[in-house]
Each structure stands twice: as structure tokens, then as C-alpha cells.
Specification:
The complex is a heterodimer of chains A (300) and B (413). Chain A has 300 residues and is of the alpha/beta class. Chain A has a single domain, classed as Thiamin diphosphate (ThDP)-binding fold, Pyr/PP domains (Rossmann fold). In chain A, 34% of the residues lie in helices and 16% in strands. Chain A has an 8-stranded mixed β-sheet, sandwiched between helices. In chain A, α6 links the parallel β6 and β7. In chain A, α1 packs across α6, α2 runs parallel beside α4 and α3 crosses α4. Chain A is globular, with a radius of gyration of 19 Å. In chain B, α1 packs across α2. In chain B, β11, α10 and β12 form a beta-alpha-beta unit. In chain B, the strands form 4 sheets. Chain B has a 6-stranded mixed β-sheet with strand order 10-12-11-14-15-16, with helices on both faces. With 413 residues, chain B is of the alpha/beta class. Classes of the chains: A alpha/beta (300), B alpha/beta (413). Chains A and B meet through β1, β3, α2 and α4 of A and α3, α5 and β9 of B.
């Protein structure tokens, strides 16, 4: 099964994808593609974005390989190794080579795909991993994933207190592998995103990007507010923008005065139970304290 | 060309080496591990080119194998048993990608209970994956089948991955004299890999393995794989004929032993079929006209060749080294489907399940099977699938049950 697609506007993505209106993941992918250019092969795991390339259409100007939910980094290993083999044999010219990009959601990245990712990092695979993190199994209707934040409602968690667990710290898990580059991004801060993708593009080895992906459908907000919600995630300190290089974590944007987390939470249906029918000050306090605690440990 | 004593595993590694494979994603599992250890040793010593990568699981291994094959290199891999099942999602996937890689499976019984020695439940679980299947009965055949598998997988009409199956322990760890062809001879048989249109290049962007929506389109691509698999039967015959001409070793899709004048036939796959040959010779000495049929190609299923081989026989005993609980043997039902529309089909096609987890099948059991078959034909009644087990084995199991009971316990189990 092979599809080809050509478009007049290079360097980003074609229009008319099947993602939901206001998809924060799509924003991040679009901005990423603009920086990476066309010489890419996206190796995808099962998730929302698996429906970007649906026969016979694709919005990508580069190449695409859908694998399965658990093993996109292993697919990237095979593609990268094969390209290296072909280059060593002189069967493809250097300018015909491709940047291998793993594209998965949080469901794969935080859970089922961890083993394959860890393996790729052990082997110092030369690839870029873009995780769009919409904090739940979004493609199937936002069930709880390992990326779902504390107290959120999901399709599998509708109790008064929301999710009892906390969001897994994938950044720390990935950083423990000492990759060449690791960063968090969000499309609401496009310059920060572009700068990080640009940096990643220049490096060789494992380069990992976690993009928080505000999800109107899964989080419950009007699609017009995707960028706003994303900005609030950063400005409240809930989504720290940071990067890891050479054993150091550096915050690339430290909010001068963090907004109360409530401002982020109250605009999303998944946290509405913390405000209606009555305020849950205990949980709201916990969420604020968690963010404050994080930033207390950050030295500017 | 040289002859050496090689294990089945070493023979498989030689097949990959002679096929000049570019890429070997690997993961260790008994009884397959010797294959990847042998290949990694050769690559380290630079006695063969190629690149090996040890990945985190068989699921990743098959994904990497498929990804590399989709990029346009010749790929080899090997696994066994639980590993094959762990990779199962990707077996179906990469078959759908239509990438022509070759996977060796060294058969081993499946958990639970976890065990080491062979039967065919692992490989038959991959029956519907879209991989073609070639089953070996000797170490020489293992080497040769790897070469044939590449020709078959890479044929322009086929473009499907192929599994070469050998039995753990009985072949994997058994040394047999194997003729190793020279690289020059193999070059005459197996041309360099041509990825055709399946590749990734910056100047030829393409999407592979994309989603489809709607049953019509899905059916189309699934039917394509089926038609390619069906086409693999005549293509296999051509390739095997060519192989025979070049190397003097002949591998028809279905092996028949003393079948022409046989009234009774044993049908088996894999190395245990060689056990039947001796039993058949002994029965022949006593005037019993019995033969052995061994399908070498199991996917595509060589139905016509089997019909030809079994037409007009009085009775057939299928010896299934696998068990589909609640049904019986898998090969038995496949064979029945092939024979149903044959006007001169044998009166009785009986099923015997044996050889599970490496359990031996001895001559006496073959004799008993033939005798039960004759009896069934006389009575005009096909018996239910028969599970081979001896009184001696039951005694031994009971002895172990005794040991397993807690001291002083009154466990009647």
C-alpha cells in the first residue's frame, strides 16, 4: 500500500486533515514540520494521528510508516538502520537521506511504547521522537492514560474527586536515559517550539520532544481556545517549558509571575467537578501546591 | 561447496549468510539463540557483511525488520515460540506491508505450562498472518529453504514475508551433514535484493502501511495478499525446480514417501515426519502398503498436490504435532477441507495428536496408528481425534503428582 501526495505549499502540512477542530497536537506537528522540512519519514504509533494518512491521502510532504501502538521507535530503528546501510553501500546519496521522526501520542509514549523507546535510547538511535500529549487515550474518547493529570475526569474516571493518580513524569524517565536532546514544548509558544525543533534537527542521536496537546474534544473546551488553554498551561506553571542536554535540565521559559492553576483548570470540562456544584478547595489546593512545589525546585 | 556437520540453527545462519542479508534485528530465545549468536560472531569477525541490532522484544524485532525492509534492504530474523506470539501483531502488520523479509522460527511448545521442546502450536498460530510458511525436516533443508524463501518472498508477483520453520532440539541442536553451497553458486540462484517500489527516499516520498476506512478498500488489500499467497504455489514450484537444477536437491511443495502404491498414508509436517519413514519401512517389510506425505509448503496450502497424493487411498492418518483445544489437530482440519470435494477421497481421515512439547513418537505408535486406521476403515467409522499417551507416561505423571503433593496432604488430584 503506497500513497503519494504532492502539494503546492511546501515545508508544512497539507490541509484537510481528519483531526478534531482546534487540535493542539496538530498545531505542534504543523509547527514541527515547518522546521524539519520535507526530508522526513514519520514513523507512527496507534493514536489520533494514525488517521492523518488514510489511503489515498496524506498531509505529509515527506514519507510515512504506520507501525503499531507499542513499537514505533523500533520501526524507526529499522528505517534508520536501513538508510545507514544503503548510504554505506553508496546506494543512496546523502541528500536523499531522511530524518526519521517517531510520532506517537501519550498513550503509546507513556505506556505501551516505553520498552521500545527505552531500547532505542539504549542504542543511541539517531531519531527524533515527537510525543503529542493530550493526557489520555484521545483517539478512543479520552480514557485515563499514564499521562492523565491528577483529579481530571476521563471517560473511565468520573468520580467526584477525578483521577486519584498523578501524571507520570515522562520527561524524567526519558532524561534518565541521557538522550542527546530532550525538551517539552507547546504550540501556544511557537518560537520556543521552533527553536527546540531547530536545535534537535541539527543534532544526531536520540532527540525527544514532548508537546502538551490541548484537546478540545477530550478536555472539554471550545476549539477556539486551544492556544489560550495552551498558554495558560505554561503561564500557570502546569506545563514547564524545559530542555535536557548534557545532564542538565534548563527551563526555557520561567513565568515571571505564575497565574493560579485555577485559571487553567476552570476552563476545561474535565476539571468542572472541582468547581461545580461546589468548589473542592482541598483538591484545588493540592493541585496548586504541586505546581508551587515543582517551581520551588527550579533555579532561574 | 563444502560439507560440514551443522546444527539446524547453524544451517539457518548459513542460509542468511549466503543470502547476503543486509540487516538482522534480533532477540534471544531458546532454542533459536544459536542462530543470532552465530550471525553476530560472523559479522564481528567480518566474515559476512550486514548489521545486527539486538532490540528489546520480538515485537520490536519484527517492527524493526519490517521498517528496514520497507526502506529497501534484505532483512533476516529468527525467533521461537513465545517470541513468535509476542511478535504476532507485527507478523500480521508486516505481511500487510508486503515486505519480503525472511523469518526463521524454531518451533517450541507454547506456555502454559512453559516448556522448551518443540511442537507446532507456535508456527500454526501464525497460520493466518499472511506470512508464507516453509517447513523443514533436515538441517540441509533449513539452509536451502532460507535461500528459497528469499527468492519466493522477493518474487515480483508475491512480495510477502516468509517463515522457514524448523523444530527446536530435534533440528536446532542436532548436527547433520550439510552441504554448504558457495557464494558464487548462490548468486546464480538468488539475485541482489530489488526493493521495487517499496522504499523510503527523500526524492520519492511515500506513505506506507497507511490506514484505510471502509470495508471495500480493506477487503481489496486483504484480497491482494491472499491472491499473492495463492500465486506463491506455482512460483514456489518454479523456484524449487530451479534450485534442484542448480544444486541437485529437490524440494517439491509436498514430499511423498512410498506413496505411489500405498493404501494407507501418514500425513505430517516437520522433522517428526522423518521418524515416520523408518516405521513405514518396517511396515512395508511386513507387507503393509503404507506411505508418508509431508507438506513442506504449509502456506499457501498445497491442496491440489495433497489431493493428488491422497486420491484413492483407503485411509489417512494425520499426525498433528499441535492441539487446538476443543477441536483437535489443525493440520487435520486443513486437510479435510482440501479433500472434501475430492470424489476419490479416502474413506477415513483420522487425527492423531502427538509430539507435543517434544514428546517422542515411537515406531510402535506409528504401527498402532496404522492399525487403528485399518480398523476404522473396516468399521466405516472415523474415530475422534486421538491423543497419544502411553501407560508408562501416565505412570510417570502420577509419580510426579505424588511428589507435587504437600507432605501428609490428602490431595486426591
Amino acid at each position: 500500500m503506497v500513497t503519494k501526495y504532492h502539494s503546492a505549499s511546501p515545508a508544512s502540512l497539507g490541509r484537510g486533515t481528519v483531526t478534531c477542530a482546534g487540535c493542539g497536537g496538530m498545531q505542534a506537528i504543523r509547527q514541527t514540520c515547518r522546521v524539519l522540512g520535507e526530508k522526513t519519514v514519520f514513523v507512527n504509533a496507534a493514536g489520533c494521528m494514525s488517521l492523518l494518512a488514510v489511503y489515498p491521502f496524506t498531509p505529509f510532504h515527506g514519507s510515512w510508516l504506520y507501525t503499531a501502538m507499542a513499537s514505533a521507535p523500533a520501526g524507526a530503528q529499522g528505517v534508520r538502520d536501513a538508510l545507514d546501510i544503503l548510504r554505506d553501500k553508496g546506494e543512496i546519496a546523502p541528500d536523499n537521506d531522511l530524518q526519521v521522526v517517531v510520532l506517537t501520542g501519550d498513550g503509546s509514549a507513556y505506556g505501551m511504547g516505553l520498552s521500545a523507546t527505552s531500547g532505542a535510547l539504549d542504542r543511541q538511535l539517531d531519531f527524533l521522537y515527537l510525543c503529542y500529549d493530550n493526557e489520555g487515550y484521545g483517539n478512543t474518547g479520552q480514557q485515563t492514560s499514564a499521562a492523565t493529570p491528577h483529579a481530571a475526569h476521563t471517560a473511565t474516571c468520573r468520580g467526584l474527586e477525578g483521577l486519584a493518580g498523578v501524571k507520570k513524569d515522562l520527561f524524567a524517565i526519558w532524561a534518565a536515559h541521557d538522550p542527546v536532546y530532550l525538551a517539552t514544548v507547546i504550540a501556544s509558544y511557537p518560537n520556543d517550539l521552533a527553536r527546540k525543533i531547530e536545535k534537535a534537527k541539527q543534532l544526531r542521536g536520540p532527540r525527544l520532544i514532548i508537546a502538551l496537546a490541548p484537546c478540545p474534544t477530550g478536555w472539554g473546551f471550545d476549539p477556539r481556545y486551544t492556544t489560550t488553554i495552551g498558554k495558560l498551561a505554561v503561564d500557570t506553571g502546569i506545563w514547564p517549558l524545559k530542555e535536557y542536554r548534557d545532564g542538565q535540565v534548563v527551563h526555557t521559559h520561567i513565568p515571571a509571575q505564575r497565574l493560579p492553576v485555577e485559571q487553567y483548570l476552570k476552563r476545561q470540562q474535565r476539571f468542572a467537578h472541582l468547581f461545580e456544584p461546589q468548589r473542592n478547595d482541598v483538591v484545588l489546593g493540592e493541585l496548586q501546591a504541586e505546581v508551587d512545589h515543582y517551581w520551588d525546585g527550579v533555579t532561574p | 561447496m563444502k560439507q560440514q556437520l551443522l546444527t539446524g540453527n547453524k544451517a539457518a545462519a548459513w542460509g542468511a549468510r549466503l543470502a547476503a542479508v543486509d540487516y538482522i534485528p534480533a532477540f534471544p530465545i531458546t532454542p533459536q539463540t544459536e542462530i543470532i549468536e552465530t550471525l553476530s560472531g560472523w559479522i564481528e569477525q567480518q566474515s559476512m557483511p550486514g548489521r545486527m541490532v539486538i532490540v528489546d522484544s520480538e515485537h520490536s524485532m519484527l517492527t524493526a525488520a519490517g521498517g528496514a525492509a520497507a526502506t529497501g534492504v534484505r532483512v533476516f530474523s529468527a525467533t521461537s515460540s513465545q517470541g513468535l506470539l509476542y511478535a504476532m501483531e507485527m507478523l500480521y502488520s508486516v505481511a500487510g506491508w508486503r515486505v519480503p523479509l525472511v523469518l526463521v522460527n524454531v518451533s517450541r511448545g507454547l506456555s502454559a505450562p512453559i516448556t522448551l521442546e518443540p511442537d507446532h502450536n507456535d508456527i500454526l498460530a501464525a497460520r493466518d498472518s499472511g506470512f508464507l510458511q516453509l517447513h523443514c525436516a533436515s538441517c540441509q533443508e533449513v539452509l536451502d529453504m532460507v535461500l528459497i524463501a528469499y527468492r519466493l518472498a522477493e518474487d515480483h508477483q508475491i512480495r510477502l514475508p516468509v517463515i522457514v520453520n524448523l523444530d527446536g532440539f530435534y533440528l536446532s541442536f542436532t548436527r547433520e551433514p550439510v552441504t554448504i553451497p558457495t557464494a558464487e553458486m548462490v548468486e546464480h540462484f538468488l539475485p541482489p535484493f530489488d526493493p521495487l517500489s517499496i522504499l523510503f527516499r527523500a526524492d520519492q516520498p511515500q506513505s506506507q502501511a497507511v490506514a484505510v476506512l471502509g470495508g471495500g478498500l480493506y477487503s481489496y488489500f486483504r484480497y491482494q495478499a491472499h491472491l499473492a499467497a495463492q500465486a506463491a504455489l506455482p512460483v514456489y514450484d518454479q523456484i524449487a525446480t530451479h534450485f534442484g537444477e542448480l544444486f541437485g536437491r529437490h524440494y517439491p511443495a509436498v514430499d511423498c514417501y512410498r506413496c505411489d502404491d500405498a493404501e494407507w498414508v501418514l500425513v505430517m509436517i516437520g522433522s517428526f515426519a522423518t521418524k515416520a519413514l523408518g516405521a513405514v519401512d518396517r511396515l512395508r517389510e511386513q507387507g503393509c502398503a503404507v506411505g508418508v506425505v509431508r507438506p513442506r509448503v504449509v502456506r499457501p496450502f498445497p491442496a491440489e498436490a495433497l489431493r493428488r497424493a491422497l486420491r484413492g487411498k483407503k485411509g489417512v492418518a494425520v499426525i498433528d504435532q499441535n492441539l487446538s483445544p476443543g477441536q483437535g489437530g489443525v493440520l487435520h482440519s486443513e486437510l479435510l477441507a482440501a479433500l472434501y470435494n475430492e470424489p476419490q477421497r479416502p474413506a477415513v481421515v483420522a487425527d492423531f495428536v502427538g509430539g507435543l512439547g517434544g514428546r517422542d513418537i515411537c515406531d510402535e505408535e506409528f504401527f498402532a496408528m496404522v492399525s487403528m486406521l485399518q480398523d476404522a476403515v473396516k468399521r466405516g467409522e472415523t474415530p475422534a481425534p486421538r491423543l497419544m499417551f502411553t501407560q508408562h507416561e501416565l505412570d510417570e505423571v502420577n509419580r510426579l503428582h505424588q511428589l507435587a503433593q504437600p507432605a501428609g496432604g490428602d490431595n486426591g488430584h
